[in-house]
Description:
By secondary structure, the protein is an alpha+beta fold. The chain has 2 domains: about 5-95, no CATH class; about 130-310, Rossmann fold. About 25% of the residues lie in helices and about 20% in strands. The chain has 8 helices and 19 strands. It has helices at about 40-50, 90-95, 115-125, 140-150, 165-175, 215-220, 235-245, 275-285, and strands at about 5-10, 15-20, 30, 30-35, 35-40, 55-60, 65-70, 80, 80-85, 85, 130, 130-135, 155-160, 180-185, 200-205, 225-230, 255-260, 290, 305-310. The chain has a 7-stranded mixed beta sheet, with helices on both faces. A 6-stranded antiparallel beta sheet has the order 5-1-2-7-6-10, with no helix packed on it. Helix 7 packs parallel to helix 8 (about 275-285). The radius of gyration is 19 Å and the shape is globular.
Amino acid sequence: xxxxxxxxxxxxxxxxxxxxxxxxxxxxxxxxxxxxxxxxxxxxxxxxxxxxxxxxxxxxxxxxxxxxxxxxxxxxxxxxxxxxxxxxxxxxxxxxxxxxxxxxxxxxxxxxxxxxxxxxxxxxxxxxxxxxxxxxxxxxxxxxxxxxxxxxxxxxxxxxxxxxxxxxxxxxxxxxxxxxxxxxxxxxxxxxxxxxxxxxxxxxxxxxxxxxxxxxxxxxxxxxxxxxxxxxxxxxxxxxxxxxxxxxxxxxxxxxxxxxxxxxxxxxxxxxxxxxxxxxxxxxxxxxxxxxxxxxxxxxxxxxxxxxxxxxxx
Length: 314
């Protein structure tokens, strides 16, 4: 179950990219979507080597997708109907003036839910916590804090940390509770905002989730109550692999939350099949888990079917 990523190739030119960080969008080149194919073990090994060198990385400011440019294309790679920008540590400042223009709510009460979801997605590209990008639907975040308080987990594992905004927000919630700690796992730790790693409740691990399982498990003491939030690459294969590998760490009655399962189940963007389909297949094979749709009671969620609860006694 080694974690492998997806390659995208342009059918018109020699352009080729690899998705490093999943989001909702998909790369386009020369005016059409780039063709996708699953990364082979050999390509995965070559890519890990390339990541250590000065290979250009482009990022979508709308959905957060990051791609490794392994073969330059004739045209600029696009995502979410805009050109992907070369990654810059100060990218959030560079795009601060490009916020989406959202119409006033009271004049648009008959707007379809689908359009509302698109508006929220545009806004999420600029969502921050204490100035740190977080890319988190605030309605789901509110549900998270309800779960934290109700269950008081000893350990929360977040897979996929981006800039660390969510990790810091979770750490502050645990500070107020006076209990719990966090383990963050991400393949690009250099994207973390300064100060996140300094919080005493946060332990950071650098690497691919499936490669880091043994180290994560070693940090969890016998009897500790554990929940997991999965927000790494949103492909079907990766999501299902992470679910299968990490599900045994989740304590009975606790949650394994899979984020961004709204790919093609709310937003017409992202991998397909993706997280939603991975959840469906995981539940078929793992009767110890059930989806808790009461956690979707704000109606709008970025995690449909994604609040997976391990049954008590399982």
